[in-house]
Amino acid sequence: MTAAKGKAKRAGPPKVTPKGISEQEVRDVEDMSAPRTPVIYEVVRRLGEDEMARPATSLWWSGVAAGLSISFSLLAQAILQAHLPDAPWRPLVSSFGYCVGFLMVVLGSQQLFTESTITVVLPVLKDPTWQKIVRMGRLWAIVLTANVVGTLFAAAFCTFTPVLPPDLLHGMQELSRTLLKLSWWQMIFQGISSGFLIAAMVWMIPTAENAKFAVITLMTYLIAIGGFTHIVAGSMEANMLVMAGDWAWWQMLLQFFVPVLIGNMIGGTALFALISYAQVMEEI
User: Fold this and answer.
1) Residue among 89, 81, 259, 95 nearest 174 (CA)
2) Could you say which of 2.40.30.160, 1.10.760.10, 1.20.1080.10, 1.10.10.10 is the CATH number of the domain covering 37-278?
3) What CA–CA distance (Å, rounded) separates 98 from 72?
4) Tens of pLDDT along 36-49?
């Protein structure tokens, strides 16, 4: 007992730093601190490197899965709208349905084109070789095509099979008809907003830890409530309009697909990805 007391006495109080914080408290501060911006950049850049290294088959089926999953955004919105009273606040609640497809895609680690407008761009900006540019273009082409094939199948399944009751199918078509009110330039500029928000979501996820669900929900809810256009989620709506006879295929491609694709790429790549790289390029 005496020896133990002597040992405890010799150990003394915990070592204190000049600012009055113990070494353990310093480690606690480091653990609780948000990672520096270059660390977030490196996480997203490495994710892009991994995506570009995946086999084409893996990218394709992951992209098709994402297209199928994101079709549930429109379905969930229609379900909520059908069960809510016709009141001014109804869109504020039904827009939460839009988040469902994105939660399935992101938490399921499926390949979504608009996420890749930042992830695979950062490795190219750091080391702009022709090999990386070609790999980036390869990933974009495969994933975008696969996403649209997935939404096309989902739209056909909803329209031409008895999987949905008539009133719910009608509700999905009515929600899709909001696209008909937008001009070509509105499609572009609203696409810039959604591209920026999706890129911001990808940038925030590495630091979100247990709040990933909230981050994805918040950013995609803003897209829905703001009426912004998204090339993949919107292609489900556009395909529904073609199958309902509101658009011909060429109208869908020219009036929706082209301008929204341009907008999403400007928002995700030309704005967010370039700004994200600019703020760390002197530190990496």
Assistant:
1) 81
2) 1.20.1080.10
3) 8
4) 778 888 888 888 88
